[in-house]
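Researcher: Next entry in the queue.
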Amino acid sequence: MIRVTRGVTTAAALLALTAASPWPASAQPSPGTPRTEPSPSASPGSRLGELTLPEGWQVTGTGAGRQLVWTAPERVPAGDARVEFHAGDRLLGRPLARPDGRSFALPLGAIRLDEGTELRVTAGGRRLDAAGRAGAATERPLAPAAVPPAPLPANPVDPGVPGRYRTVSGEYALSSVRLPGLPQPVEMRATVVGPAGAPGKRPVALFLHGRHDTCYTPGTEDLRITWPCPAGTRPIPSEQGYLRTQRLLASQGYVTVSIAANGINGQDGDLEDAGAQARSSLVRLHLARWADWSAHRASAPAAVRKTAPADLSRVLLVGHSRGGEGVNRAALDSLNPPPAAQDGYRGPVRWKIRGNVLIGPTLFGQNPAPDVPSTTILPGCDGDVSDLQGQIYVDGTRGVSKGAALHSAAYVVGANHNFFNSEWTPGQAKAPAMDDFSSDDGVDPVCSPGTATRLTATQQQAAGATYIAASARLFVGGDDAVRPLLDGTGRRAPSAGPARVLTHAVGAHRTPAFVPGSSVTVSGGGRLCAQIDPDAARACLAPEEGSSPHFAHWEASPEPGRDAVAVKWTGTGSPVAVRSARPVSLAGAESLALRVIVPPNSTGTELDVAVTDASGRRAALGRTRVDGLPGSPRTAAYWSREVRVPLAAAARAGVDLKRIGTLELTPRGGAGSAWLMDAWGWRPGTPAVHPAPLTRVDLGRLTVAEGNSGVRTYRVPVTVSGRGSGQVRLFVPVPGTDQVTSRTVTVRPGRHDIDVPVEVRGNTRFGYDVWHDAFVKAVRGTVVGAHRGGVTARNDDAMPTVRPTPVADDVTEGSALSWKVTLSAPADADISGEIRLKPVTDGPELSTADVDPAWLEAQFGSVPNPARPLSGLMEDGTSLWFSVPAGETTAQVTVPTVRDEPAEPTESLRAQLFTYDERWEPVPGPEFTGRVRDAA
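Model: Structure for this entry, 936 residues:
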C-alpha cells in the first residue's frame, strides 16, 4: 500500500492498482477547452477523497482513465533519463510528459494511495520534486574534499593530437523513414566530416546524439519536444554538436557521420524500450546507405563524394545518452538480428562494428553487447543520467560471453552531461541551452561552475574528443599503445588538458578470479552484499550513504545475481577471506587486478593483498592504496578504482597459480570501508575479438480484451533466436503485490523454455486495464534485445454515468452542505472526478470566511486572509475532488459551514461536476447549487 506524505485522515478513499502501466500515452485537454484541471502548483496539495496529496501532486481523470500527475514549478528540460514516480523505495512507474513540459502523468491502474510514505519524482536517480530539492540542503555531507592528487603519468602516445589530413565537411538529407511504433516518419539527415586526399578506403565513425528538445523558436526561449516541428519553429541541430571530435578524427583519417534523431526523440515517450530499437534501426539504415555508396560511389550525396571512400568493415559507433543505448543496440542487432516485427531495418549486415563509445549513456534494459569492445564515458557531474547507469556496459558483460572484448569505463571528474555536445552548450548552441547540473541550495563543492574540480565546456569537449579518439585508435586501428589510457593502467593524455580522467576495465587479457556471487563465500571482516536490495542488512550501500554507478537500479528490487564484497573496519581491520567454490587459475597473468570502491573524498585506504592456493600455501602479494573520487551528495561517486598487485611474489613462494582458492584483503590504518567489485588475473595486450554464437531473447507484449465472462489463459510473447544455448534470469512481478519472482532459465532457439502464463478473467463491469509484466536479463551465453514485455488485459466495459444528488443543499449557517455522487452501476475501478466551483451570478457567494477553517486547510493547504469567494480561492479555479471506491456506487461531498455573528443575506455556492474521458479530456456534467441561510 502506497502512502502519501501529507495524508491527514483516513484510508477510505484509496486507489487500488495491481500493476500500473508506465507506457500508455497521456494527453492534456485541448487548448480550446474553456478550463483545464487546476494546476497543482497553485496549492500546497490537492485532494483525493479525504486524502491530501503533497505539493505539486494531483489525481485527474475517472475510473480506468485516472492519472497521478506531478507538476513542476517550471518546465523540466527534456533529457535522456526517464522520469520516475516512487512511493518510498517502490517504483510506481514512469510517467509521460504532457505538452507543457511541466506536468508528468502516470496511469493509476491499481496503485493504492494512503498516508505516510513519501512520494518522490526522480530522473536518473536525482530528485526533481520540491521536497527533494529542499532536502538536498540537509543531506548528510560526505567527507571534506581531498587535496587534488598529482597528475597521472602521461601516456607516450597521445590520441588527441590532430592528424595530417585536411578535412572537408557537408550534409545530406534523404527521404524520411518509418520505424515500428512511431506514428510519424523519422528524418534521414547527417553531418559528414572526412579527410581529403587520404589514400584507400577509410574507417568510419558514426555519431548518434541523445534525447534533447527537438524544436525551438528563433529569438526566444521557446523549446519543445515534439515531431514534426510546428510551424514557426526549427529543428534543433543536435547532430552538429560533435564537430570538434569529427574534425579531430577526420584529420586522423576517419570518415565521420553524425546523424539526426529528432524524429525519435519527439516520439519515444510511450515506447516500452524508450526508443532503443528505433535508434538501432536508424543507425543501421544509415550504415546500409553508406554500404550502397561504398559500392556505387556515383550515387552518393555530394557531401559523401567529396570525402575519402568509406571502409564499412571498420566502423566505430559513438552514442551520447539515449544515443549510447541506441548504438549499443545497433551493435548487438548487427551480430544477433532482432525479430523482424520490431525492426525498422530488414536488409543484410554489410558492415562490421569494431567498437562503441558511449557518452553519459542510458541503459534501461541493462543489456550490453558483450562481444563489441566499448568505452563508457561517465561524467562525474552528470545532471541528467545522474545515476551513471552506463557503468553497466562494463559490469553487465562479466561472464556473459568469452570475455575477450575490452569494456572500459572512463570517469571524467567535473564533466556534466550536456557539454559533450556543443549544440547543448550555452554560448555555442544555436537554440537555447543550459548546464544540466544544478545546485538548488547554493554551491556544490565539486560540480558548481568555478569550483576547482568543475571543467569548462571547452575543457570537457577536449577530453571527450581525446578519449573518443583513443577508443577509435584501439578498437578500430588496433594500436595497443593507447590501451593504458582506457584499461585502468593509470595514464593521462596531455591533449585532454586539465581533465582528470580515471579508468578501469574488464575483458581483454583478464581472466576471472573472484567475481562476487553465489559461487563465492566471504568470512572475516567482510560480507557478501547485494547491490540492489531494500533490506539494509543485505544491501551494499544504504541510500543515505550515497550513490554508486555500479549499483544502478533496474526493474526489480531485490535483484539476485548482482553482488559485491563489503568491508568495514575500525583500526587495523580483520582479514577478509574471499573463497571461490572451485579453484581459479591465475597462470599466465602478470598481476592481480582488483576493482575497489572507497568512500568519496577519502584518501589513503590501504589494503594488504594475499592469495592462498588449494593446498593451503599462502603468499602476500603486497599493499595497495586506494583514494576516493571527489564527490558531493548530488554525485554518484562511489566508483571503483582499479589497482594491481604483481603476482611475482606468489610464484617465488611456490604458490600454485593454477589452483588459487582464496583472496585475502587486510585493511590497514584507521577506521574505513571498502567494497570489492571483482578481482582478475591481468596481463597487457588487446586480443582479437571473435564474437561467440550467442542465443538472443526478446520479449513482446500481447494486448487482449478482457471479455465478458470466463477465464482465458494467454502467454507472454517470447522470441528466442541465434545459435547454441544460454541462460537468462526471468523476472515476473506478482500482480497486486510488491513482489517479483525470479528464476534462471536455460534457453535454446526453437524451444519454449520461457513460459509465462497469464490468466485474464472476463466481466461486465468497468475496471482498470491490467498489465502483467515480465523482464529478462542475460546471465551466460545469451544476449537480450527487448528486455521487457507482458500481457495487457484491456477493459472493454463502458464507464458508469455519474450524477450528483442533494443531501442537504439548503442549510442554515453552522450546518454542512452535502451532495451524494451516485454511479449508475458499481465498477471494479475507483471512479474519481471533480466538482468545480463557479462564480455565483445571482446574489452573494459563499466565501472562505463562511466555511470551517480546518476543512479549508485540509482541502487547499491554507486559509486566506482576507476572505475571498470560494470559487476564486485558487488562481486556476477551485475544485473539490471525489472518489467512489471500487464496488460501491456512492460518495459524499461535504462543505461544512460556520456560524458567525453579523446578520447576512442568504449566500450561495454554484458548482459543476466533471469526469474525464479516455483521452483525459474533461467531460462536463450537471450544474447544481447550494444555499446557506443566516442562523438569525
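Model: The first strand starts at residue 2 and ends at 4.
Researcher: Noted, moving on.
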